[in-house]
Amino acid sequence: MDPLSGAASVIAVIQLTGVILQICGKYLNNVKSAKHDIQRFQEKLAALSQVLHSLDELIRGSDGNKLTATQDLIDNIAKCSSALTNLKERINPETTQKQMRKWGLRALKWPLARSEVDFAIMELESYKTTFALSLQADQTRLTNSIHKKMDLSRLQIAKQAAFDSYGNQHSECLPGTRIDLLREIEEWAKSPHGKCIFWLNGMAGTGKSTISQTVASRLQDQQLLGASFFFRRGEEDRGTAKKLFPTLTEQMVNRIPQMLPRVQKAMDDDPNISEKVLREQFEKLLLNPLFDIEQREEIKRRVIVIDALDECDSEDDIGIILQLLPQVRKSTSVQLRFLLTSRPELPIRLGFEGITDAHQDLVLHEIEKPVIEHDISLYFEDQFLRLKQRRSFPPDWPGAPATKILVDRAVPLFIAAATICRFISDVKWNPQKRLEAILTDQSTY
Question: What are the NACHT domain coordinates in residue numbering (predicted)?
């Protein structure tokens, strides 16, 4: 398909998703019994819409006629449009209310059974994956076909710093946990009026890295992730800020190919740019390439996730990083934001005091206790279910009273819950005896 007709087809599907989302909003406000199903359906539909927006941006760009993978999507786009049209008709309140009046019913009722919602979600996920893979393939192809080919290997990067690297395998948040927190971060990431920096802080063991991992994964699925860097104290590459900006730049150019020419120039002008001071690295590798992207190629917003900033070994470098990041607000073509996580240590608190207008924060260990208890309780249930699948225990083991005691012992630290579960499930020992040892021990974990 040619770029113009392709863009028109994609826009039509985007508009269709918008109509269905509005219809779902009406049901959500008036139908309580199916609230969970409606929310699940909305989330998948919104994720599909986000990928379609990214696809539209790429098609409308200056290289729209070079998108070989996207050009093969015409049939899938038509099928997706047809499926969404059918869904719209199925849930249209005017249609459903006519049927209900026929049976003497007046209250608005969600027309899809759970099995139908599950099928619709599976179908939406399939289309989203197809479009996202084509989008990724074309973005990669454009990156590799830049006239002035760039050798990214000249950038000194921390290879294991990205959220999805082998050396950075944090588990993600368990489904059903951190719901409000993750929603707040996602709303900030998508809002046109959000602050430049979202600082998620909490004491050790409150689950910051798990949240970072989850957010980065979700942002990547929605084509909103710019880059990620997970600090880790004591590691040569990840324990310092020396490779922070080169690493972020390398990831950014793979997602925003339009940055390549200016990054190439910075490396040609100074082959040792990765060795320079943080300010020079930031300006020449990240900031100036963002400024050079033409406004007509607007890429909207991207989020960079920086986890465990407190594990950077230089307090001075931490302060410099916090001074530099807000400068991205000057970019008119890419709205770049940063999710930072750390312990609330003094150097970081002082750094944020100097940029109060550029950030918002959330303190993990100040979240209401019932919310934390709920999430940790779900974690224990999940871990014990896994243990029962491996060992012979009754279905109700270890029982609600025992689980309640364990939850009380762990709150507010997720790391305490994880430690307890590892202790109980150690294959070398009897889980029941280890459970009893914890229940009779008055220590906290």
Answer: 196-344
Q: What is the DSSP code string of 292-316?
A: TS-GGG--EEEEEEEE-GGGSS-HH
CATH number of the domain where residue 330 is located: 3.40.50.300
Instruction: Say how far apart CA 54 and CA 127 lie, in whole Å.
Output: 14
User: DSSP E strands: which ranges in 96-255?
Assistant: 197-201, 225-230
The model's pLDDT over 228-257, given as tens digits with 9 standing for 90+, comes to 999 999 999 999 999 999 999 999 998 898
Cα separation values, 430 from 234, 384, 440, Å: 35, 14, 16
Residues 6+ positions from 135 with CB-CB distance below 8 Å: 51, 54, 55, 58, 69, 70, 223
Q: Report residue 15's pLDDT band, with 50, 70 and 90 as the boundaries.
A: very high
Residues present in the chain in total: 445
Note down the domain range covering 298. 152-364
The confidence band for 6, taking pLDDT boundaries of 50, 70 and 90, is low
Bridge-partner residues for 259, per DSSP? none
Peptide bond preceding 394 in cis form (omega within 30 of 0): no
**Burial of residue 199, with CB atoms counted within 10 A of its CB: 0-12 exposed, 13-18 middle, 19 or more buried:** buried
pTM of the entire predicted model: 0.67
224 φ, ψ (degrees, to nearest 5): -110, -10
Q: Does 273 share its domain with 299?
A: yes
Residue carrying structure tokens 């790391």: 415
Say if CB 56 and CB 125 are below 8 A apart: no
For residue 445, is it within any domain? no
Domain final residue pick, 321, 339, 364: 364
Q: Could you give the CA distance from residue 201 to residue 184 in angstroms, rounded to a whole number?
A: 14
The token pair at 227 is 């880059």
Q: Which residues pair with 307 in a beta bridge?
A: 230
Confidence band, pLDDT 50/70/90 cuts, at residue 148: very low
Look up residue 359 and give its two tokens. 């950030």
More confident residue, 340 or 96: 340
287 with 196, same domain: the answer is: yes
Contacts of 176 by beta carbon, 8 Å cutoff, 6+ apart? 375, 378
Residues 6+ apart with CB under 8 A from 97: 108
Question: Which residue, 332, 364, 396, sits at the end of a domain?
Answer: 364
Query: Considering just the CA atoms, what is the radius of gyration of the chain in Å?
Result: 25
**Co-location of 171 and 44 in the same domain:** no
Give tens-digit pLDDT for 45-64.
999 999 998 888 878 775 55
